[in-house]
Specification:
Elements lengths: L17 H15 L6 H8 L3 H4 L6 H13 L11 H18 L1 H9 L6 H16 L4 H29 L4 H10 L7 H6 L8 H19 L1
Helix pairs in contact: 1-4, 1-6, 4-6, 5-6, 5-7, 5-8, 5-11, 7-8, 8-11
Pfam families: TetR_C_1, TetR_N
Keywords: DNA-binding, Transcription, Transcription regulation
Protein name: TetR/AcrR family transcriptional regulator
């Protein structure tokens, strides 16, 4: 994909297709954010006139729906023979990997008000099917899955900025030192932790929270 400052060459006649439009939209959202996507901007990235997009999609919403469908199709399913709770854990890990790999999907999922599409419906059906096999009531099943998805969305949202901490070997030591400088009488609990200060990568935090949410199901099993 050419940079913003690079001269563009117009796509040869007949080469524009839905797959190219969707892939370019994904790249644009990943790079510049969902707000940057417009049919005019997308057409500019493709070096075509905006009206050329309407040959393949009726409007911007149709392009966004196709982007979401394409990205969800890249979802990596775990082994179906895995035990139910572990299967749920692996699905949430797959969601987290997908969201962090494709910020476009994360932004679309958070802001989407569209009806569920076929790909998302199939994923949701399998999730609730596994929960049904655990013999939990409907309210708990819906509440648990909503909690899991929101947890994954939250972890993926902060990942781009917090991931830099993982690459800084001194990050947690600086945090420990900052806490140690706090007055012990005013912050006794934080001060006490500095004697044996734990460190976490972003994946460690994700796994810790995921295990905590799924713990009741594990104990039930």
């Amino acid at each position: 994909m050419p940079s913003h400052n690079s001269p563009r060459t117009r796509a040869p006649r007949g080469t524009l297709n839905p797959e190219l439009i969707v892939d370019t939209a994904i790249d644009l959202i990943d790079r510049d954010g969902l707000a940057a996507l417009s049919t005019r901007r997308l057409a500019g990235e493709l070096a075509v006139r905006p009206m050329a997009l309407y040959t393949h999609f009726r409007d911007k919403d149709a392009i966004l729906a196709a982007v979401m469908t394409e990205l969800l199709s890249r979802f990596e399913w775990p082994d179906p023979d895995v035990e139910d709770v572990e299967w749920l854990r692996q699905v949430m890990r797959a969601y987290f990997r997908l969201y962090t790999a494709y910020p476009a999907l994360l932004q679309l999922d958070i802001q989407s008000t569209q009806k569920i599409d076929d790909v998302e419906a199939k994923i949701t059906e399998q999730l609730y099917g596994r929960l049904a096999r655990l013999n939990i009531d409907h309210r708990t099943a819906i509440g648990l899955l909503a909690t899991l998805i929101r947890f994954v969305l939250g972890c993926a949202t902060v990942y781009p900025t917090r991931h830099a901490w993982d690459e800084d070997p001194q990050h947690w030591e600086r945090v420990r030192q900052e806490w140690a400088r706090l007055p012990a009488e005013a912050y006794p609990s934080m001060h006490a932790l500095t004697d044996d200060f734990p460190t976490f990568t972003q994946w460690d935090v994700f796994e810790f929270g995921l295990n905590a949410i799924l713990a009741p199901l594990t104990e039930q099993g």
